[in-house]
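Late entry, 2-(butylsulfanyl)adenosine complex.
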Amino acid sequence: MDVAARAAWLRDELGHHNYAYYVLDAPSIPDAEYDKLFRELQAIEAEHPELRTPDSPTLRVGGEALPQFPSVRHAVPMLSIQTETDTEPSGARAFDGRVRRDLDLAEDAAPVEYAAELKFDGLAINLRYENGILVQAATRGDGETGEEVTQNVRTIRQIPLRLNGDFPEVLEVRGEAYMSRPDFERYNARQREKGLAPLVNPRNGAAGSIRQLDPKLAAQRPLSFFAYGLGETRGWSMPATHSGVLDALATFGLPVSSYRDVVQGSEGLIAFHARIREIRDQLSFDIDGVVYKVNSLALQQRLGFRTREPRWAVAHKYPAEEAMTAVEAIEEQVGRTGAITPVARLKPVFVGGVTVTNATLHNEDEARRKDVRIGDTVVVRRAGDVIPEVVSVVLDKRPMQDMFGNEPLYAPYSRPTHCPVCGSEVEKPEGEAVARCTGGLFCPAQRKQAIIHFASRKAMDIEGLGEKLVDQMVDNAILRTPADIYRLGVLAVANLERMAEKSAANLLEAISRSRNTTLARFIYALGIRNVGEATARDLANHFGNLDALIAADEAALQEVADVGPIVAASIRHFLDQPHNVEVIEQLRAAGVAWAEGEPLRRDTLPLNGQTFVLTGTLPGLGRDEAKAMIEMQGGKVAGSVSKKTNYVVAGAEAGSKLAKAQELGIAVIDENQLRELLNHEIRS
Ligand code: IVH
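Prediction complete; structure with ligand written out below:
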């Protein structure tokens, strides 16, 4: 083979592997192998510059920096889309009503067919392919004229540099360049490590990357892309529907989101809106709502445009996940292990579907980095089930002077020197982000949290002993330690506020039932810092009985898999407090018991040393169930994918963990394969 043919072959080969990896999510070759081919092509091109082509994968790492972006006039203007801000079903009905009216449809005419898709939150890009080769990429600009950003767009691995299949002579594809959440997190982690400013959100990350004059820098801020429409086309007998166009784009090798559907009438739109709302938090990228488009291109043409917006499309939003409000105070919360968390008390604001009055500031460093002060107007975010947080301060609205003209009004946040609950000293070890109250169980806040944790489902599982009740009982000095729980009588409980006699009896019964437990649950229930459920189970298995654990020194503790010096020190510290041992003895005296046994030889278990990560919804197995099955056989279940992961068990709507597994070349199995593995391991 001559060099030119070899170069052409390499381009082709690399193009296919790239597509398999970034668009299909199914790597077809090991990374090292890809890199080898890539370097070979780079070497050929360095020696024979005449063999460089505009579709060479070597262009993906970025070329020369530009002094500025040239402007491009769009062959077909890039329009915007009307936004429906009524986030209720009525918003979809209003759009469908307008479409039917504009089409002069009779009341009883059949429902209009719509293509429903996601509204991606990034930056609109026009890709121009001539004879299948990406020749130009441009931003939207003012819709008429944009900026040419071809070099940067070539660094987006999902965008084909050359099309597949039966593509038309000229094809302009429109879509959204965006930064996925995992890429955003990774980029920010790296920035923080280097002591550099993190990106505010993925959208800013995408805009910054595309508008980066040095394409090598752009290549370091990884973006992704979804196609959602067309610009100019020539020489194409176009499909008759929008969904058909997207299908065709996918066959040309362009990434098209699989979260799309063809639906009938307003009811179909409403169902799509609701369905996406449910899974929104599991997507690996941010969305801004959903988009409805009349599916028939002929009907689209009949509907036409109103000024700069098509009549045949609308963006239907979700309730805002961010809102602005005022900080009325900054207070501290004290957690179970004494961790002090600054919390902004807010003027109540409706966000993400609920009224929010508090938002976490995480810790002192974060509060200072964001420079949140009392009186500030802040942006609060509440997404899904996560705790509301303060995203940023609107500095323009900071009150700068008090009535005497003194400025600034409030000082930057600093953590208290003493615990706001018990007055004990607060300490913050060097290099740690979290400040802690040193009061231990003397501190009522820690006592409450410790008791709530003790009673929680995965610990002693005392149903009905929740936060409100524990608050009352600690405040009334009915409970001081977890051991007091087993001394409660009907009278003490029934006298509590809002406690009917029946529920008092139920609670006492639940308490009584909880006496019968396992060593692992008991250790976990103690609430030792750094000892979670998995570690508690490892400790129980390793030592077999509680006295062996109490007697173990740090070296002996570190013999337990995954117990390092920090965890060992935490355990020893806990058990060295006479008070804690006393509570343990009281609990045993109160009849809390488990089967004591010989230490378990973990190394004899079939899945010993194997780490699993669960992602997505498994069809026939709950998460806790799957976890228990794996752990029964000595395997471990971790929360995130790393090089140490052996298997990723993926179910429906698996997100970033699956992508990460593929990136790292880790085996991905489904529920059936997991069951097979477990069965096999049982048999062998
Ligand atoms: S269609 C003529 N579809 O939203 C219709 N736009 O204001 C042109 N966007 O700048 C747009 N997801 O960047 C369309 N599935 C989607 C979209 C989408 C995001 C963005 C696009 C545009 C803006 C429209």
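The mean pLDDT is 89. Will revisit in the morning.
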